Amino acid sequence: MLRRKPTRLELKLDDIEEFESVRKDLENRKKQKEDVEVVGGSDGEGAIGLSSDPKSREQMINDRIGYKPQPKPNNRFSQFGSFEF
């Protein structure tokens, strides 16, 4: 394998200006996203990860995927059917 000398990179004024414009654009988008989350967070669905109650988080996930758990009855007829001895 041939070893080559490192290439010299030069930082130009245009590159710096482009970097600054992209950085400002990303900061503006981030601020807008935070503003939307603050406004959307009042109804409860905007802040899924911020909820401290695990049941409500689990319920929101179940609603999102369409899972509706059915409680199991705890009597012996439901476990063994209606067998008559």
Automatic annotation (TrEMBL):
An example Gene Ontology biological process: anaphase-promoting complex-dependent catabolic process
Pathway field: Protein modification; protein ubiquitination
Annotated protein name in UniProt: Anaphase-promoting complex subunit CDC26
Swiss-Prot/TrEMBL keywords: Cell cycle, Cell division, Coiled coil, Mitosis, Nucleus, Ubl conjugation pathway
Keyword Protease: no
Role according to the record: Component of the anaphase promoting complex/cyclosome (APC/C), a cell cycle-regulated E3 ubiquitin ligase that controls progression through mitosis and the G1 phase of the cell cycle. The APC/C complex acts by mediating ubiquitination and subsequent degradation of target proteins: it mainly mediates the formation of 'Lys-11'-linked polyubiquitin chains and, to a lower extent, the formation of 'Lys-48'- and 'Lys-63'-linked polyubiquitin chains. The APC/C complex catalyzes assembly of branched 'Lys-11'-/'Lys-48'-linked branched ubiquitin chains on target proteins.
Comp. bias regions, Basic and acidic residues: 25-36
Similarity remark: Belongs to the CDC26 family.
UniProt-listed Pfam families: ANAPC_CDC26 (PF10471)
Alphabetized InterPro entries for the sequence: APC_suCDC26
Broad class of the protein's primary localization: nucleus
Region annotation (Disordered) ranges: 25-85
Database matches in PANTHER family: ANAPHASE-PROMOTING COMPLEX SUBUNIT CDC26 (PTHR28579)
Organism: Equus caballus
Residue ranges with Polar residues bias: 73-85
Subcellular location: Nucleus
GO cellular component, one term: anaphase-promoting complex
